[in-house]
Amino acid sequence: xxxxxxxxxxxxxxxxxxxxxxxxxxxxxxxxxxxxxxxxxxxxxxxxxxxxxxxxxxxxxxxxxxxxxxxxxxxxxxxxxxxxxxxxxxxxxxxxxxxxxxxxxxxxxxxxxxxxxxxxxxxxxxxx
Length: 128
Fold this sequence. Notes:
- It comes from Ideonella azotifigens.
- Helix content is 77%, strand content 0%.
- It is mostly helical.
- The N and C termini lie far apart (69 Å).
């Protein structure tokens, strides 16, 4: 019997400080955008974008950011392993899906109309 693998997460004080600084930078960038309301819009937007860019850069130097980058690389690697269907095969499968949807729509419409006829015409005696 194998033991389940355990994921060890190391969160150092420096890493926590980086993430706190990221949060402060994001909030500070938004606050600066609104505090600079007397300035031209281009200056406000640049201040916001620079603050957010610095926050993103700092985030990617933290352990969480490095894990996110590794996850993205691994995802790209997995997508490259996917065997995509040939165009003819994809068109066939699309046709099957459309045919199934049409058949289900007809079935549900017939079921609805049958129940409507049974309930309103036969049981309740209402005529529309």
